[in-house]
User: Fold this.
Amino acid sequence: MAFSEETYIKIFRYLENDLSSQERADFEQEINASEELAREVALQSEMNELLADSPENELRKNLDTLSRQAQDKEPPGGFPPYFLWGIPLLLAAAVAWWLLSPSADDANSRSGLTDSSTPSSTITPPSSPSSSGSTDDGRSPEDSTAVLPVDSNDLSTNGLTDADSPPIETGEKEEEAADVGLSRRSATDGGQGGGSTTAAEPPKTPKAPEESKEMPPDSTISVAPPDSAIFNSEELFPELKLDTTEYAQIGLPPSLEPIPELNSLIGQTLNFYGFILQAEQKQQDVQLNAPRGPVAFRFAGKVLPDPDSFNPADTSVAEQFYGFLQENTFELQLYSNDEAAYEAGEPLYNSQPINLNLTSNQKSADFEVRITLNLNPGRHYYLIKSTTDGKIFFVDEFIVIP
Amino acid sequence: MNTSLQSDYLQGIAVNDFATLQKIYKESLPEVAKYVKKNSGSFEDAKDVFQEGIMVIYRKIKADALTLTTSFHVYLFSVCKKIWLKKLSRKSGKSVPLDFVGDFASEENLDADITKARKWALFNKHLQQLAEECRKVLKLFFNGRSSKEIAEEMDYTEEYAKRKKYKCKIGLTKLIKEDPEYKSLIV
Assistant:
């Protein structure tokens, strides 16, 4: 049961001893008569108690810091990651044996395979930066199809199997997660907890892109058992581009470190008083032509009543939606991955209130934000926030590639 | 059991000594993580459980309600185990026999402490999500400052400070109630 603002204010005044004796006595009668109200009073009282600055909260802060620093030293459960490498190798060996066996010709004729089309190992090395072509999100096609050994334990940490985890936005995010074999969240988390696997044969010195063309293909992507040498991932940044799976293996350069609080909200459908935001055109990762350069930022979407919050038969939805649009305004904020700036509420860019244009059927309101900004390379976040109470309505991220 | 060492751990938690906490993390978290991961959890789950476990112990120390009859690490492990089993039972909707937890923690009623730790985490998570201004106003309010004092601090009129405080708290309440974790805490 949702309480009116008036009731909430009465609860607050009651807890603050701000009611007259008569008002207090009347309100206590109401509390005694309503279990819901009594529960709400208890909740508000607990909030007051638990959110006060206290030694307990200071301890919690230290524990948060230590938790962020903690790395999983346990060997992953289940099959070791290198077991997964074995599957394609065994398959490749089986195919080779089949093709080279005395009946290979018969086999080829049965399957229609020729030598040139015989599949090799499914472990596809990444291309060098000079490889031609790229996908829509800026990754090279080779990168997006690279098969990395996936740590089953890492998969469990991405929350996909956690019943308590927030629902992941359907479509784009899931496809993206499938592309890299991990969710974006787990990939970024891997920067903090990625001690379990590191890249093998790291380059001893920074390699220029030209040099990387001559690197043995496997050397940039193959994953060795834990405790192999450590990459200087900053140096590899230009070469690795956007393959977050690889970052998960070797650790993130500082400009790509995530802001955990914001990353935890990405992909969630955040309900704002019964209304939701659906992104239609998200900002894609962009490549700069200069060390710091103009980025054409675009974000478009629509706001609409949350189907889970309103009964379809409720004829007042349109009216409530109109009221919602009248009473609430939203702004877009853009942050780099500077956590301190985010915590201080100092965005790189803060829009004017966004124009929400009610569609002709009055079932949603469209918006579009287009701006050109000079941005440095690295991870960036954009949020849609209520200008009324600061609640975050939507969060997504994009990466500016040097 | 080295009693002096055990009391060092408790004292370290009681006074929020970072070095002691660091030591506890280093020595005990791997075991807890191993257990959680073996029982359908992740390392992230294990870290949450570990934090809650330490908070439970902290409250017990403060309430003078903790006497160790075993080593600190065994006790912490059994507390964490109980927390994780409770979480699992909530996720699966099935009750987990808590006597499985072991001799140490099952003797005590940790439920209230665990719930309190989880509520703190939930409330605080959403407080941090509020805009800077709302967060400041509510922090002042939660720390017992009057509307007049909030107005002075924030350069508001007293009336506006009062309204802002109410509005921000209603916003925070809605955020908390929309969190799936809230339902599992209330039921």
User: Anything to note?
Assistant: The longest strand of chain A covers residues 293-305.
